Structure formats: structure tokens, C-alpha cells
């Protein structure tokens, strides 16, 4: 047998192997897709049966029997339907979770060595519709993994566990941008439930004690526009931490209480430009004429964003603001102040409308 014959036979054998492998892969994919399709169909059927039960059109025993036959698919169907309900309505499904022992499965998973299983269980607990989950989720806030703590916090927010507000704050408020943002979002989701505990936390706090948690608390109070917290958060405009001063300035602007005007004007001389910028934006939101001279004084600030935000805030006062910017454009000694006044006047279509204003 010559070399060419050997090569040809090798190529044929290799081709046959490739074809067989391709057929096997296609068959495997076909069986997998068929199985998944069957699971999705069964899950959809169970979900529809559960919805009929919620509408009073299906007997609880029939639904229970169907869920028992396919407990894994039934578990997923129950969680899906529960996720469609308002938190206060989820208790109506708890009888299924309890009698099928699915709640115990989630409780056990929360103690798993796998952090992914713990996180998934913490996430599912929001759908069980029972207050039994609250102490377990609060305990999960001490988990070593941030993802588990975050899942527990989100579930606690969904069930409206007021007693969990401060534990959530301390579990998520870490000195980094991402956890601070997530902690703020979770607490804002709780709504007015969290106002009183956060107000008490800020009132008893100091700038040096738990600065990240205090910053988050102030942000949430501002986003929820809690006027009662204003006297307690104003002192934090003098905190050493720039992030805390900035968050406090923004919160006061969001709340819109006139008691903040004078303290915010004092913040316009802050050494950090981001803090000054937040202060001028908040004064613009407050829209009080007593702040106009202070805002006009920032048109010549060394930071462009401060000048820009100050000019935008001045514009919010209508013709009075336009007059200030026009006067600055005509005769201010600072070139930066003239430039920013021209830019903002142009943006608002006011440039050249008044006699004598250069265009």
C-alpha cells in the first residue's frame, strides 16, 4: 500500500468521525431543546393553574396535586407567579410553599456552603409571602459575600421589613461607589418605611462615626424628600469628608426646604469644586431670590462646572436671572464669568435680545 492510499484512507476515516460527531451534537441539541420545550410548556400550564386558583376558579387541592407531580417545575412556577404579585398579596401562595416544603428548601439553601445558592435562596425568600423569612434574611446580612447580603437586602426591602433598615444600611454601606449606590437604591425602594429609622440614625450619628452609612442615610432621606430630617443633616455640610458634604448638599436641594438656603450659600466657598457645584445646583432647585447674589458670585469660579451650574441656576429666575447674566457679560472683569454668561444666554435664546447685548 503506497503512501497516497494511506493518506486517502486517513482522510476518509477522519471525515466519517467528524460527520458522526456532528450528528451526535445535533441529536444532543435536539433532545435538549425538546426537553426544555417540554419543561417550559409544563411550567406555563402550572402557572396558569395557579393564576386560576388566585382568581377563585381552581380548587387548592387540584393545584397542590399538580404541583406535587412536578415539584421542581412547580417550584419555579410558584416563584414566577409570586413575582407577578404585589408583596402584600404573596401570602396567598404560602400554603403551597409550606405544604410542599419548598420554604424549608429555601431556608436550608440559605445555609449552603455555595454562596451562589445562598444568594439565590435570599432572592427567592421575597416571594414566599411569610414573615418567617425576615429574621433569616437579617441574619444573611452578615454573610461574608456582598452578593448574598445584597440579595437579602433586596428581599427585605420587598417585604417591607422596617426593622431591617439599619441592618441593611450597615451591611451594604461600604466605602466604595458601587455598594453605596446599591444601598441607596435598596433603601429608597422601601419608601416611607425607612424614614423614621434613618432620621434617628442620622440624628444620633456624627461625621466621624460610620461615615459611609451616614452618607447613604442622608442620600436616601433627600431622595425621599423628608423635610423632618433637615435640622439633623444641615450640620453635615461641615463634615471633613467631601463626599458627605456633597451628598448633604444634594439632599437639601432635593428636599427643597428654605431652611437650607443660608447653609448652602456658606458652602459656596468650599475648597472642593464638586461640593461647590452641588451647592449651586441645590440653590437653583430651591429658587429663592435671597440666594441670587451668592449664585452670581460663582460665575467667576475657577471650576468650569461650578460656573456653568451657577449660570444655569441663575437662569431659573427668569428675566431677573437673564438680566444678571447680561450685566455680567457686558461688564464683568473676569473673562471666565463673561464667557459662561454668554454661553448660557445663547443656550436659552436670550443673547442679542436686549439692546446693547453683544451677539
From TrEMBL:
Superkingdom classification of source: Bacteria
A UniProt-annotated Pfam family: HEAT_2
Species whose genome carries this gene: Tahibacter amnicola
PANTHER family in alphabetical order: DEOXYHYPUSINE HYDROXYLASE (PTHR12697:SF5), PBS LYASE HEAT-LIKE PROTEIN (PTHR12697)
UniProt keyword Transmembrane helix present: yes
Chain segments annotated as transmembrane: 12-32
Keyword rRNA-binding in annotation: no
Keywords: Membrane, Transmembrane, Transmembrane helix
Lineage: Bacteria, Pseudomonadati, Pseudomonadota, Gammaproteobacteria, Lysobacterales
Protein purpose: Catalyzes the hydroxylation of the N(6)-(4-aminobutyl)-L-lysine intermediate produced by deoxyhypusine synthase/DHPS on a critical lysine of the eukaryotic translation initiation factor 5A/eIF-5A. This is the second step of the post-translational modification of that lysine into an unusual amino acid residue named hypusine. Hypusination is unique to mature eIF-5A factor and is essential for its function.
Protein name: HEAT repeat domain-containing protein
